[in-house]
Specification:
This protein has one domain. The chain is built from eleven helices and no strands. The mean pLDDT is 90.
């Protein structure tokens, strides 16, 4: 499988798209703070919900997911020369992976990004919409009773390859490898969360209209 110059450019664009530090820029523009100095210190959507509150956090979540979705969609904007479906799927997964790397290691934010869960969801929506719906049910089954986003995310990620194989009945090796990579990647990025869960010290996500950033603003005024 070889790539022409346009397809290589698309991969670079996907990385730059993923590198847009939505939560960091949102915090600096609207709250005059660096999100990475508050809450968990992570530049992801969960910490944005905790620090910015429901509305702003939801916007960050949607924009981060959109990065992954748009990255995969770049495959329709560039001329592709793949002769079979599997090669096209591999290319789409490559685009998504580049966006994910951009989110985790953003060139526009000193390579200090988030864990990539929202962006990964956007990639999965573009590639496996039905699997995402099923995994969302798994996420909610673990999140709602505990309020641990990390537990819900890891549970959904571990369920993902089983959904792809047994529900979607995918036989494409590229899709199966990607699905298992997700099941490994998400728990790996949550190692600190796993340790806190075992100690009973993990932070719960309690939805609030006002976040920590609003409290900081109020204290300063």
């Amino acid at each position: 499988m070889s790539l022409d110059k346009y397809e290589i450019i698309a991969l670079l664009v996907a990385y730059l798209l993923g590198s847009i530090p939505t939560s960091v820029w949102f915090g600096k523009i609207f709250y005059k703070i660096d999100l990475r100095n508050f809450g968990s210190g992570n530049a992801g959507a969960t910490n944005a919900l905790r620090v910015f509150g429901n509305r702003a956090g939801a916007i960050v979540l949607l924009l981060d997911a959109l990065k992954g979705f748009l990255a995969v969609s770049l495959s329709t904007l560039f001329v592709v020369s793949f002769t079979n479906e599997n090669h096209l799927i591999i290319y789409k997964l490559m685009l998504g992976t580049m966006a994910l790397l951009g989110h985790v290691f953003p060139v526009f934010a000193s390579f200090r990004g988030g864990k990539g869960i929202a962006t990964l969801v956007g990639i999965a929506i573009a590639m496996f919409p039905l699997a995402v719906l099923i995994c969302l049910v798994v996420f909610l089954a673990f999140f709602l009773p505990t309020r641990y986003v990390s537990l819900g995310s890891m549970s959904a990620a571990i369920a993902f390859p089983f959904v792809v194989i047994f529900v979607l009945q995918s036989t494409l090796l590229s899709e199966i490898i990607f699905a298992f990579a997700v099941a490994v990647f998400v728990p790996f990025t949550h190692i600190k969360n796993i340790k806190r869960l075992l100690k009973g010290e993990e932070n719960k996500l309690l939805f609030k209209k006002r976040g920590l950033a609003d409290e900081v603003k109020q204290q300063e005024s």
